[in-house]
């Protein structure tokens, strides 16, 4: 498509001589603008993908893919229900749990928390928590006074393995003086790190028998947490579980119903950020137009001479198309390399900046996660590259067309 003569002239125009460097400087700034736009878009989309992926992993890992619970009641026959659920194809695990709100007191520290009761074997098989044990042992998670707490709660309350804490529940015994809250002293058996600050700070785990006694549930459970082999195809499993239980008093809720609203909000934010950051590339593309128009103005005499020597309008147009395409392609390539390298090493860069500045750039108490996530989706990277190249090439069409329309007689007459 581009002949040797056209490539030679385009290369000559891109290497400006002394006194002709203003248009080239604008072209350089256009190249930098495209590179920064592409890099920023790749980095932001990678961080949003990583945030969404990590958040979804934490939600599903800690709360399960499906939840079975009763309408305003506990699940009385939960051992048989758990056994029936585990027989459904695609179900990886089913855990019966109790759940209730309590007040935690440790010395002068007090806070609200959620008390969850779970069997020792189920906790051992719950990889989201058992793999994050940092103090104590799951072998000590037995009896009526053992609890497991998150690292954030332990640090705030000054608790270690063996430390006592008091749990209070508003559901107490009725007396002539009113309802008296129930209180019981427990001892920390396990300290875990769930890699989710909100869970580490607000959840207390107890053996299911001890939790049932404290919450006055008898031999019932509050819910059954179900994990599947493939969370993306959870609806058929939800229907199979509902059919297997065949109890109108029980409801089966999957993660697309309980947590999808939050994940949809992240997706909407991701799409909005993509549109906003695309404007950076669009602005850089307009700079390509201005730099090429200035180049065409500066090269009017050269265009007239080339036309007089026999160069066709198509050849002139291809020369300036190559000039603009070089800016777009080079900027896109540089931005892609910069963005991919930054996204792959973003956590190291964050830690280095924190060390240099002495500030916390990613507070887990605000963002729910312990680290800055990034996940490169190569289809999105290709989409960004193609979009940048298309915008850059479209920006070269009008200036190249104006150059091809230059009348050599009029141009030489004015010269």
TrEMBL record:
Matches recorded under Pfam families: FtsX, MacB_PCD
TM region positions: 21-48, 272-294, 315-344, 377-398
Entry annotated with the keyword RNA-binding: no
Record's subcellular location: Cell membrane
UniProt-listed InterPro entries: ABC3_permease_C, Lipoprotein-release_system, LolCE_TM, MacB_PCD
All residue ranges annotated as the MacB-like periplasmic core domain in the record: 29-243
Membrane topology term: Multi-pass membrane protein
Keywords of this entry: Cell membrane, Lipoprotein, Membrane, Transmembrane, Transmembrane helix, Transport
Domain spans labelled ABC3 transporter permease C-terminal: 275-408
Claim: Zinc is one of the keywords in the record: no
Recorded family membership: Belongs to the ABC-4 integral membrane protein family. LolC/E subfamily.
Protein name, as recorded: Lipoprotein releasing system transmembrane protein LolC/E
Originating species: Neokomagataea tanensis NBRC 106556
């Amino acid at each position: 498509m581009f002949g040797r003569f056209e490539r030679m002239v385009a290369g000559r125009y891109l290497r400006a001589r002394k006194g002709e460097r203003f248009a080239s400087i604008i072209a350089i700034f256009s190249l930098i603008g495209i590179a920064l736009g592409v890099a920023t878009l790749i980095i932001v989309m990678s961080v949003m993908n990583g945030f969404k992926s990590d958040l979804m992993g934490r939600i599903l890992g800690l709360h399960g893919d499906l939840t079975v619970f009763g309408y305003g009641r506990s699940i009385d026959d939960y051992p048989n229900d758990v056994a029936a659920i585990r027989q459904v194809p695609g179900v990886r695990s089913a855990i019966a749990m109790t759940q209730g709100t309590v007040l935690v007191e440790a010395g002068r520290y007090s806070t609200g928390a959620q008390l969850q009761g779970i069997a020792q074997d189920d906790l051992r098989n719950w990889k989201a928590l058992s793999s994050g044990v940092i103090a104590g042992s799951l072998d000590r998670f037995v009896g009526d006074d053992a609890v497991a707490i998150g690292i954030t709660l332990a640090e705030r309350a000054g608790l270690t393995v063996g430390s006592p804490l008091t749990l209070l529940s508003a559901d107490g015994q009725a007396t002539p003086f009113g309802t008296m809250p129930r209180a019981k002293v427990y001892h920390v058996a396990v300290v875990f790190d769930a890699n989710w600050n909100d869970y580490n700070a607000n959840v207390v785990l107890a053996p299911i028998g001890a939790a049932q006694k404290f919450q006055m549930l008898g031999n019932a459970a509050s819910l059954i947490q179900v994990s599947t082999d493939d969370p993306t195809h959870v609806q058929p499993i939800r229907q199979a579980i509902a059919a297997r239980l065949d109890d109108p008093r029980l409801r089966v809720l999957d993660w697309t119903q309980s947590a999808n609203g939050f994940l949809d909000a992240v997706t909407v934010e991701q799409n909005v950020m993509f549109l906003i950051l695309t404007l950076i590339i669009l602005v850089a593309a307009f700079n390509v137009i201005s730099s090429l128009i200035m180049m065409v103005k500066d090269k009017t005499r050269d265009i007239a001479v080339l036309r007089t020597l026999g160069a066709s309008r198509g050849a002139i147009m291809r020369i300036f198309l190559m000039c603009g395409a070089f800016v777009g392609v080079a900027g896109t390539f540089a931005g892609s390399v910069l963005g991919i390298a930054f996204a792959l090493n973003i956590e190291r860069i964050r830690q280095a900046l924190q060390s240099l500045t002495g500030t916390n750039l990613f507070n887990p108490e605000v963002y729910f996660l312990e680290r800055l996530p990034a996940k490169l989706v190569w289809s999105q990277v290709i989409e960004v590259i193609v979009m940048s190249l298309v915008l850059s090439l479209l920006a070269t069409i009008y200036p190249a067309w104006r150059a091809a329309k230059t009348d050599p007689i009029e141009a030489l007459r004015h010269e």
